[in-house]
Amino acid sequence: xxxxxxxxxxxxxxxxxxxxxxxxxxxxxxxxxxxxxxxxxxxxxxxxxxxxxxxxxxxxxxxxxxxxxxxxxxxxxxxxxxxxxxxxxxxxxxxxxxxxxxxxxxxxxxxxxxxxxxxxxxxxxxxxxxxxxxxxxxxxxxxxxxxxxxxxxxxxxxxxxxxxxxxxxxxxxxxxxxxxxxxxxxxxxxxxxxxxxxxxxxxxxxxxxxxxxxxxxxxxxxxxxxxxxxxxxxxxxxxxxxxxxxxxxxxxxxxxxxxxxxxxxxxxxxxxxxxxxxxxxxxxxxxxxxxxxxxxxxxxxxxxx
Amino acid sequence: xxxxxxxxxxxxxxxxxxxxxxxxxxxxxxxxxxxxxxxxxxxxxxxxxxxxxxxxxxxxxxxxxxxxxxxxxxxxxxxxxxxxxxxxxxxxxxxxxxxxxxxxxxxxxxxxxxxxxxxxxxxxxxxxxxxxxxxxxxxxxxxxxxxxxxxxxxxxxxxxxxxxxxxxxxxxxxxxxxxxxxxxxxxxxxxxxxxxxxxxxxxxxxxxxxxxxxxxxxxxxxxxxxxxxxxxxxxxxxxxxxxxxxxxxxxxxxxxxxxxxxxxxxxxxxxxxxxxxxxxxxxxxxxxxxxxxxxxxxxxxxxxxxxxxxxxxxxxxxxxxxxxxxxxxxxxxxxxxxxxxxxxxxxxxxxxxxxxxxxxxxxxxxxxxxxxxxxxxxxxxxx
Lengths: 305, 383
What we know:
heterodimer, A: mainly alpha, MetI-like fold, 2 domains, 73% helix, 0% strand, globular, disordered N terminus, B: alpha+beta, Rossmann fold, CATH 2.40.50.140, 6-stranded mixed sheet, 5-stranded mixed barrel
């Protein structure tokens, strides 16, 4: 939109008044064109946020901060923060641990690159509910996974991979992997391959090349992928209910908010929980992206292209 | 050599007057035999042979796609040749990975590590060799002062100009005292003036540090001015090897002549061999006398080649052998004289150099001196 306006405000060889008229029309046009987007953000984000924020201070008794005090005062409610961390953090870290070496391997053209990329990206199209549904039958006590293990006589008792924390972590890992993978792949393939060759000619073996050259240049990508994956998994809800243990170890913060709103019909309390959740996400983003700023962030090629 | 004497070498050269004792090259000889590399169905490099002695500066010269970079990458170990052997002082290095060949390489785009300071970039190779810290710092400073960049030690590559980045890239490669120095079109990203300066700089470093250098370029002037020997390549094959003087003055093929500046190529057929040369005839019936290069017999198809600067221009010449009449068609001022194209003398236009002024439409007599008109066996030339 800026581009359009910019072009229109550069009249060539026109009298000042015509130019001014043009400029006004151009700005007017820019505003009109921006309108829908601004409206959308206002209606769908800013207004609900402000509404929820003020709602969180809406209490029947106990003063303005009663909802927050209730949340942090109740051990069961408070525990949802930690419960959520214990799902979001492992899922995000597992994804990074898998995606970093994988994308590093794929930094140069490999056979079947498009097929592999396609395969890794498919989970993105599924959505958490479908993944959870699939996991229930695949990892369940009489699902394929445990049947195979039994058949191979690896275990006698079925492995418990659903209806607990493990189940939710698996589901979140599958759901968020495509995002992490694609972000890192973009970063890695943007690194000038000559940098690695230069390091190699200077005597660096494979591990040194990765540690000293490629990894530092991947840090911005890793931080971005971490941030996106963490925020998405911290808001976990469907899989925590479907493949988790929503009454116990996977009672996540989003579930606490939902229960406050639709089981106790206390929208004030629910809003307070939502604000707590958002604050934690923002805090993590600030820490991660702030940390990223301390690393090198320039172009990932060494000289003129 | 101990590390201490190495340091002395570097320091000595910054202060020593020209003509002082030069350091010994670190290798005796490099022997390359039958290097071949195919990509899919296309042979990028075929039967590449080269013998090099320590301290020599050799250029691989040719147009893009001639296999010169492929050859360099094979020597570097960054590319595995299908066949062939590379021996360094009698030992095959084919099984040695790049990181243990102890070669230095300068890339066309410099490939400086963008996240490391200039000092850390230069120190990288020494760190990989586990040189003690104090010594690294000393050697980095010495080499940076040699390329006149000491004050930029703590800057990042992006903060330097192209020419400075190039000097860092060279410093980074030479500080490790490579056995062989490989350079892949290192000057092609620089502007004309800087290119000339860096050319002198590269030759100076080569001599001051006792390097053995293989230099890849498509620029004939660069190759001729820098090298002890030039390897001219085409379609993955070596066409001619010789000193700059040899390849320039005695090209062995029309391709070589053309690539090294004989821009006028005339398709002819041999009609007779005479005492002072060879008589060739053009399709249009014009007869010319030239100097044969290689074996030719009457009836052979051939190519006659002549440099623009060797064509003699006369306003009012007398008709004679190899003298033709034409009209000036275009005039390009080059600073050092002009370059003109002449229409009508031969079926194709001729390009000539002149010190005097000409303008479009001038009638002109051209003489192609028989001793300057080289005749080669016919081949496909597409330069």
